[in-house]
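Fresh eyes needed here. Kindly weigh in on this sequence plus structure tokens:
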Amino acid sequence: MERIAMSARFEGEAPMPAGEPPQTSPRAASLSMEAVTADGSPAGFDRATYVNHATFTSESTFQESGTFTFGDGDGELDIDTVGEGTLTPSPEPDVLHGAVIWRITAGRGRFAGATGMITSNFLLRTSGEFDERQVGIVFLP
């Protein structure tokens, strides 16, 4: 079993939610990423992108699923929300503060057979732009 620990900063954009229930599809790319194996050596990738789909379950909660693509596309992880994410006002004007935990549901390429979880803590501006920090642990067979 191999273990990879990741921490990353992402910037992205989420279109204004629409429909009933309200839905949106956030997209983001990493600005920085550290990924190391259990012994502390580099995991072999330093960037990621994702495309997700979020459905609001109330004014302040949502469920989300999507796909992360790592490096030069040599690996992907599918994710799904554990419970519900939350999105609430922040002390800053025109900024919402959110958090979510994702479970890894599938992996492809270098991540075939992956399991694990990723947490996200983010700030969403009313313009739809967001800044996000993520921490994750991925287990590979």
Summary: The mean pLDDT is 97. The chain has one domain: 2-140. DSSP finds no helices and ten strands in the chain. The first strand starts at residue 2 and ends at 13.
